[in-house]
Amino acid sequence: MWKESHNQTGGSPRFFRISLRDENLKTYYMTNFALMQYHNYSLSELESMLPWERTMYVSLIAQHVKEENDRMREKQLQRKSR
At what angle do helices 25-39 and 51-80 cross, to 10 degrees? Predict the structure, then answer.
């Protein structure tokens, strides 16, 4: 019976609050920039992702970067021990 009010852009203000609950606006833009600059995502791809989908991709990329850094660190240690 109750209708949810929508803002002029057609979206729900509640959805926007939920989608940014883990990020403030600054980190949102910084994350977008990093994903576009270093991981070849387009802005339209990022903006069309669902909040949980974005969180999942960011987590997977962070895990991959950590593994690569660990691998490189191990390789450097092996070179030093020779």
Answer: 60
